[in-house]
Amino acid sequence: MERRDFLKLIGITGAGAATACDAKVGPQSLIPYVVPPDNITPGIPTWFASTCRECPAGCGTHVKTREGRVIKLEGNPDSPVNRGKLCARGQAAHQHLYDPDRLKGVKRLVDGDYVDAQWANATSALAEELRRLRAPAGTGGSIVLLTGLQTGTRERLYDEWAQAVGARRVVYEAFAYEPLLEANRRVFGESVIPSYDIEGAEFVISFGAEFLETWISPVRYAVEWSRMHAFRGDDAVEKGVFVAVEPRLSMTASNADEWVSVKPGTEYLIALAMANVLGAGGEAGEWTPQRAGEATGVDPAVIERLARMFGERRSVALPGGISTAHPKATAAATAVALLNRAGGAVGDTVRLTTPVTGAVEGSYRAIVELVSEMQTGGVEALFVADANPVFTLPPALGFAEALRQVPLRVSFSPVFDETAAWCHWLLPDHTPLESWGDWVPQQGVAGIQQPAMRPVFDTRATPDVLLDLWRAVGDAEGAAVAPEGTWYDYLRTAWTDRAPDERAWAEILRTGGVWEGAAVAPSSGQPAEGANLGQDGVGAAATGEAGSGEPTDFAPPEYEGPSGEDTFALVVFPQIAMYDGRTANRPWLQELPDPATTSSWHTWAELHPDTADHFGLADGDVISIESSHGSVEAPVVRYRGARRDTLAMPLGRGHDRMGRFATGRGVNPIALLPPTADPDSGGFAWQGVRVRLARTGAWVHPLTYQGSDSDHGRDLAEAVPMAEALRLAAGGAVESHGEQHIVGEDLPLTVDRVVRDSDPDGAYRWGMAISLDACTGCNACVTACSAENNLPFVGPERVAKSRFMTWLRIERYFEEKPGGRLETHHLPMLCQHCGAAPCEPVCPVYATYHNPDGLNVQVYNRCVGTRYCSNNCPYKVRYFNWFQYEWPEPLNWGLNPDVTAREKGVMEKCTYCVQRINAAKIAIKDQGADAVIPDGALKTACQQTCPTDAIVFGNLKDPESRVARLARGPLAYSALMHLNTRPANFYLKHVTDRTGIEVAEPAAEPAGAH
Amino acid sequence: MPIHASGWRRSILPILLVFGASACERTGWKAQIAREDTPVQPIRFLHSVHVGIDSIPCAYCHYSANVSEEAGIPPVGTCMGCHRFVAGTTDEFRTEIQKLLGFAADSTAVPWVRVHSVPAFVQFNHKPHVRAGVTCAECHGNVGAMDEVSRVAPLTMGWCVTCHRDRGASDDCSVCHY
């Protein structure tokens, strides 16, 4: 019997068996529209321009909908903020929309239980309360509207509403950057966050600012950083240098050419000493490199070298993140501002005239005052919107206890978070993808936010609720005149200037906003000559406050808490997926590996391997971490990017409310922190405590996927010094590659050879060029791939067994350079679509094969799940469905209908987004039967979102395509080339050892420290 | 022919032209193909009258077949374009048209029963087929001669691939399976 006949026979038997369960399947319905929506054609996506609201950066988005449902977000290429790119949080935004644990309607607390209520009843009941409580105009009153950071029209409505109903506004944002505002007020006379021109700089030095992860506007800065820094070999022009000064090797620091590891809290002394070298004078004059070196543990020669580079080049220094969030935070930010000033960056790369959104003045101070007012019964009603202070404030502050003193508590949160759990009324807001709104990410830039689909649940836009309340209360008192109409009308009226007629409004909705302030010439933010900056740190000329400010005390902060051999300075850091904890119930983000440690689903404690060895701790050993204010337990992750004298923990997990994916995952290290503020700015001190660790004896399976820090000499992630890269890019000869492994094959692998692995009569051979110099390891591509290709999340139990399903993963390797410098390589690893793919010949059912375009195709319906292919894949990029992974309703609404949702027992892997390839092929034929997809018209999901353009996909057969030019370039190599798999992915080497970066001595740390 | 319309629950399912197929279990796709060829529809809509006698072009109702993967099922509004004026010439017709008017009055969709479907792991797209000059009848049969639409083509992979090969279209797996 031939194979084909055998399969036919099996098929017939199978069909017979299948008919028996016909009743289970039942007839399918074909439900047409009653009235067809104007902008929907079945089967064709409809896109809406909007604004991402996952953090205060305000990136422009294009929201893809199919048949009225959001299925994907992409960056808006017109937006000057993110220029078409999104981060992992933005890519997962529709998992907020489809969060199965969202509040599904209005609820009221009755006798300790939440019961369903009606919107109309809620409004009238609350209006009655407001009427009773409202204060006479102008007296402040006992009603408080507590919100997160808002800009634009919503901010205006909140203010007007508060004034009209006699309420007071409190704005609280967990990451409020108050010290930056205060420092810039002192130094420049402007209480703003300036635009930092990273793209235009030649030398960028960051003092703890995680600007590629969470700081201010990470996508914007990642785009700018790659243009400043990434060397792809397509021209022979030297690129810029980036140095990170941090107590922990964050993802941002891992992309630096040099990581200057300093004692936590002392980072700014480096900036101060650099400013001193550059002639800043004043108080900085006391901080010589020698003195700063002693205080920080950094070689004074390094400080002098960095200062020289800063002075000689077009430079920018970035203050932020963990380094400006301790009891001396204002001094720290001031030091960096002084450095920018001394180095001539102000007005050039530091632009005070185009400030960016992201900071909230007096945020923490206001919440502390609110707590004491609530404790003394001064607050009768509290309305909370876009904030979760119970989670993001240290328990020692007593916010939750104080909250219980308030007689009426109302939450507008779309999810049942820790703050909502204390409220009497739950009035869930729409999620941003269902809402009207706008956002001003930078002065002169306004993004519009429009609903991309109808609300999933019975929720209402908070501004609409407030307007209703306003009208109800206003009528009774006859005081303020409430605006007529809905929140949309209010917003539309606010935009009248920019959109006088409906045509202009439609254009704004199409483009996503107005960007008139985007291209701003370098401003003169420089204070007038003669401003006295040294003596008192106050921008005298700009504010006229000369001499009024107290002198800045630059002595390093004291870390409080236990001391001794088993104690460490605690570093708590915002993590790229979790931000301040608001994204914790998005399963893709919970499962997203942390770029530094590749951990997911839990809160870990980072210890240097030497420290861990000293205490005999292995990965997964649970330790208790105790400060004077609380204690938590977390498993150890041994991380070479940790200092020996610190213990680092990520923020954002440890929720006890919010939903099935967030609740009970990890711990919240905020419990370890005292309610301490930086006295100058009032900003919360995220850093500043010491903790004692003790082993508990428990062990949990490490939830990390990176098995080893090293590629064990297999040259997976290759690097080349800048000087050599420049020589090669200028046409220099390539040195011999050494011994030839494969008889009859030319090494290194050429593009021409890879092209021959496709149909000679066809037009395409798809391939990729991935620049390791551009890749930051941010994992945005991973989430984009998940959204595009219906990748399931598998949960912590299966992550522990390495059964994660992300087709694309970022491998992270460390390389120790001479002198002890740690070089980090981020390597995006995905199916290589090999010309001689080891997976193909071992498949017994021909489920994987090479197609005429050179794709390595996986046919799900042929696959019988032998897993031979995965075993034979040297790159380990094939993923097996061990289970039928679930998409709890309505998470399944976000599935991409163009891609099969795989089922149990099937192998899957990267397809190069074959659904996009097929769609592009069909579309291009509109222009003629022989038309070929032009270069750049077709982008894979990972490529589309990559903020640094590290991934370039295209047709290798077209010699002029960008991918072919890069793949032919001097930096291209193939991973595991010696195996002769002939991969279609070319990697471009990481370029290290840039001019000015010398091989440094290992950072000296205090003797005896761990 | 007796008309069975009463057994239908008015479905309030959202528009699931594509998603509807994805819920089937592992053996489900074979069952889909083996299903009844001529299902009973909620309204006894006669293609023989609309296509055969009235000569309405297919794309008048199936409006997106030439631009999209979906052919498009006419909204109730499309039916009402004519049936606001056309009440039917026989009692039987009038009864059926009254059902339509009922759906229109209630603003509910007509829960048609799918006749042609392919399994969830097949990504079929109407547009390239229409553009290549494949007539509707080649796959759907001469519906102008059918009172109620029956599936005439087997819609099996062998049937698809035979035509692809005859016409010189791609027979690469990844054209349909991804």
If you had to describe this structure to a student in words, what would you say it looks like?
The complex is a heterodimer of chains A (1010) and B (178). With 1010 residues, chain A is an alpha/beta fold. Chain A folds into four domains: 28-167 and 423-521, Rossmann fold (3-Layer(aba) Sandwich); 178-348, Dimethylsulfoxide Reductase, domain 2 (3-Layer(aba) Sandwich), CATH 3.40.228.10; 567-699, Barwin-like endoglucanases; 719-732 and 739-992, Alpha-Beta Plaits. In chain A, the strands form eleven sheets. In chain A, strands 6-5-17-16-15-7-8 form a seven-stranded mixed beta sheet, with helices on both faces. A six-stranded mixed beta sheet of chain A has the order 22-24-23-26-21-25. In chain A, helix 6 (152-165) runs parallel beside helix 17, helix 10 (267-277) packs parallel to helix 13 and helix 11 (289-296) packs across helix 12 (300-312). Chain B has 178 residues and is mainly alpha-helical. Chain B is built from eight helices and one strand; from the N terminus they run H-H-H-H-H-E-H-H-H. The longest helix of chain B has 16 residues, at 91-106. The radius of gyration of chain B is 17 Å and the shape is elongated. The interface between A and B is large, with 49 and 62 residues.
